[in-house]
Amino acid sequence: MKAAWPGEKPIYRFVAPKEMSFHPFSFPFSDPARVRQALSLHLASLTGEGMRRFHLCPVILQKEKDRARGVALVFPEDLDTGLEAGPKIRLFPAPLALGWALEGSGLGIYADEEQVSAVLWREGIPVLYRCVSRAEAEPSELAEWVRASSGSDFSVFLLDSRTSPDAAERLEAEARRTWAAFPALASLDLSSRQMESALRIENLSSTLKATLSAGLVLGTLFLAASGLSALSARNRLEAYENASIRLYREVFDPTGPIRDPLSQAKARLAALSGTDEADGLIQAFAMLGRASRQSDAGIVLDTLRYSERQTELIGKGPSVEAVRAFQRALQDGDTALEDLQQLPGGQFRFKITVRGKNR
Questions:
Q1: What pLDDT band is residue 276 in, cutting at 50, 70 and 90?
Q2: Cα–Cα distance measured from residue 127 to residue 179, given in angstroms and rounded to the nearest whole number
Q3: C or N: which end of the chain has fewer Cβ atoms within 10 Å?
């Protein structure tokens, strides 16, 4: 479906790609190039080489001083293959057009004869996207899936072409209101042409900033060089001493006296062997082994953080059901699924906390 932005020449086509995913972000900086770089590093650590097939489109929705909050859309680079092309055609996610109707919080669902798509909003930020065929789920079933995945309840705004013959026209009207309420979305365009243009603009901006600041940086470095040569030896020694003390405080003892951090650390490590902490860590690994055998869910564990009170597990699974099966198989202690998000390519990243001593 296509819609012309009022008073403007571009024409929007509303799309709902199944492989698209949303990734909310919050950074202590707002430069678009830095935001893209940070997101690229984060997503590459989750998806690896699979990220090469996808476009990354950050949208900054909220700025406060130097902080930026928004959402990154990740979608296949061949999204516009086979669609009508042209400089006036822009691609916009259909369920994202319902943000104004939800007042920035809740679940917006758009359904046509072929598929059902949804976007979950929280505090003015889209945090989750999902699209399935109508053969897989009806709108009510997709809403229940999002509730189970997010672990929360919310209001739902639904446009369904089967119950509302004018759903397409209403979607266009809702999009206009959403673009007015969230101006950053008015320029959102998922076409390959726009992605390439955005990258060129960001690269040019970064180059100009670097060029303009180069003279000032070189002058400052020249003036500081003479002073640094006299202070470098003393500063390095003080830095080594401070770093060793800080590391000892973080790892072993935040308040006790420190005479020689290295010797005291060696003594602490020697005393650790055979203690309750070491035994508890071994039992945590045993718990994971039992859960892996029992669930057989294709779970890949990326991070394990252990303490006497709880064990935190971060990893990936092929489906929500697989993650839930792995959680149930963790029989030791009280388990909580604290985070679940869809990754590009269909996998789901999770964070499970097991409270207790994992005995």
A1: low
A2: 18
A3: C
Question: Which of the pair, 228 or 351, is modelled with greater confidence?
Answer: 351
Q: Which helix (H) or strand (E) holds 297?
A: none
Helix (H) / strand (E) element for 55: namely: strand 54-64
* pLDDT tens column, 92-140: 999 999 999 999 999 999 999 999 999 999 999 999 999 999 999 999 9
Burial class (CB in 10 A: 0-12, 13-18, 19+), 351: middle
CA distance 173 to 120: 19
What is the token pair recorded at 157? 């705004």
- Residue 40 tokens read as 């690229």
Residue where the block lists tokens 């869809």: 342
Over range 328-335, report the average pLDDT. 76
Of 134, 91, 89, give the one whose Cα is nearest residue 109.
134
Domain boundaries, the chain: 2-190, 210-272, 276-355
Residue entry with tokens 């060089």 = 225
Phi, psi dihedral angles at 133 (to 5 degrees) = -75, 160
pLDDT value of position 216: 42
Could you count the other beta carbons within 10 Å of the beta carbon of residue 130?
A: 24
List, in sequence order, every residue forming a beta bridge with 207; answer none if it has no partner. none
Query: Token digits for 252?
Result: 């072993």
Percent pLDDT > 90 in the chain is 36
Distances (CA, A) of 47 to 42, 177, 210, 345, 347: 9, 35, 31, 8, 9
Q: In the Cβ-directed half-sphere of 144, how many Cα atoms lie within 13 Å? A: 5
Residues 276-355, CATH architecture = 2-Layer Sandwich (3.30)
Containing 73, the helix (H) or strand (E) segment is strand 67-76
- The pLDDT of residue 212 is 43
In one-letter notation, the amino acid at residue 94 is A
Largest CA distance in the chain: 79
Quickly list H helices, the chain.
32-47, 99-102, 139-150, 167-181, 183-186, 192-251, 261-272, 276-295, 320-329
